[in-house]
Write a structure and sequence with these properties.
This protein is mainly alpha-helical and 393 residues long. The chain is built from 14 helices and seven strands. A five-stranded mixed beta sheet has the order 1-2-3-5-6, with helices on both faces. Helix 4 crosses helix 10 and helix 10 runs antiparallel to helix 11.
């Protein structure tokens, strides 16, 4: 049932809305009044952010955007305190209050990402966490006892694989395997873990905070991690592991474990932004579970660059990593998987904790661009199942 007749400019806008619903890609500025007048299909026109996001989805879709997804986009809200939906220029109500109407094509990509994160968060909440895997096989009482800690982007998935093979960590007097990597990689992995947990500041902002505080953070300081576990299990139980490919040998598993590839910088930043929205919808524990178990697998393989330390912080990180290396050498922990080897190494093997800055290039991301994040978000929305479809399957 349609509402009262709208003014001519607003009727032209409603015709454009129908054009977008049908898969159209014509920008608002090129939408002519001669294209026809549309009937009012709601109390208010959708916001400019929602309209432009739907147009971008239409441009990226291999066939056509589903009617359900188009409706959800147009009805979505743009999260962010004090940042309202924007009216369409040329079809606004003429109110003197609030932000001025805009041409959707002039919006920043950040405005469109805001709407996309709201939709993705709703998808995650509606689908819920994935079905837990079947219980692992029975463990052997004579197995080697271990705990795998350290770089979260490496230790967490490797530990999960070991558990699935019937080799859970723990037991009496376990060997503590502290998995490390070059300092710049560990910081990128620590940021990734934070993005899939609580969200927080952007990569460039976070790096500036660490440099100002002269800290590597609890997840990026290998010496701090080793010292904490040495205090719990004893210094003789701690081993520094600088090559994840040797972990299977250290715990007595024949087949190698699959070492995960890092997610793209754009995928990580999208997860960080979705985390902020999920924080308003679910508990912190549920947010972490949805991000790590539901969103992360969908982001695997998303195109993009690699997080790299900004040039202005590299001198600091090189110096700070050198001090971390000295602390590890003084502690005398054995080192396994040293660069150029793979076996046991002494102090010189700890050169593997120093930064290994990749050469600057198009794939080196020091400040994640909104354009790349929007591209990943659009791809994810086009692939995502509709809310409730997984539950009803």
């Amino acid at each position: 049932m349609t509402g009262p007749t709208a003014p001519p400019d607003e009727r032209r806008a409603w015709a454009w809305v129908e054009h977008l619903r049908a898969g159209g890609t014509t920008p608002w500025a090129q939408w002519s009044a001669s294209a026809g007048a549309g009937e009012r299909a709601g109390r208010f026109l959708p916001g400019a952010q929602q309209l432009e996001l739907l147009r971008r989805l239409n441009l990226a879709a291999p066939t056509s955007v589903s009617t359900e997804l188009a409706g959800r986009v147009l009805a979505a809200s743009a999260p962010g305190r004090g940042r309202p939906d924007l009216e369409l220029v040329g079809a606004d109500s003429g109110s003197p209050y609030g932000p001025r109407p805009v041409d959707p094509a002039d919006l920043s990509d950040d405005e469109l990402v805001r709407v996309a994160t709201s939709l993705l968060a709703d998808d995650l909440v509606a689908a819920g966490p994935p079905t837990p895997p079947p219980p692992p096989p029975l463990t052997r009482p004579w197995r080697r006892r271990y705990r795998l800690v350290g770089d979260p982007a490496l230790a967490d998935p490797l530990r999960a694989q070991l558990i699935a093979r019937g080799r859970p960590p723990g037991g009496r007097h376990p060997r503590i395997l502290v998995l490390g990597a070059p300092a710049d990689r560990m910081l990128a992995d620590a940021f990734t873990a934070r993005a899939f947990d609580t969200g927080g500041p952007s990569w460039s902002e976070w790096m500036a905070i660490l440099a100002e505080r002269d800290q590597l953070g609890p997840r990026g300081d290998l010496a701090r991690l080793a010292r904490r576990w040495a205090g719990r299990a004893g210094p003789g139980q701690v081993t520094i592991v600088l090559d994840p490919r040797v972990v299977h040998r250290l715990v007595g598993v024949r087949r190698r474990l699959v070492v995960p590839s890092p997610l793209s910088a754009e995928a990580v930043d999208l997860a960080r932004r979705v985390a902020a929205v999920l924080g308003l919808l679910v508990t912190p524990e549920a947010r972490t579970a949805l991000l790590r178990k539901s969103l992360a697998p969908r982001l695997a393989g998303a195109a993009g660059g690699v997080l790299c330390v900004p040039e202005e912080h590299r001198a600091w990180l090189t110096d700070r990593a050198g001090r971390m290396r000295q602390q590890l050498e003084r502690a005398g922990y054995p080192v396994v998987g040293a660069p150029g080897g793979g076996g046991l190494a002494g102090g010189p093997g700890l050169a593997g904790v120093l930064p290994a800055y990749p050469p600057d290039g198009p794939d080196s991301v020091v400040d994640v661009a909104d354009t790349g994040v929007l591209r990943v978000a659009v791809e994810l929305l086009l692939r995502s199942p509709s809310p409730g479809s997984e539950a009803s399957a």
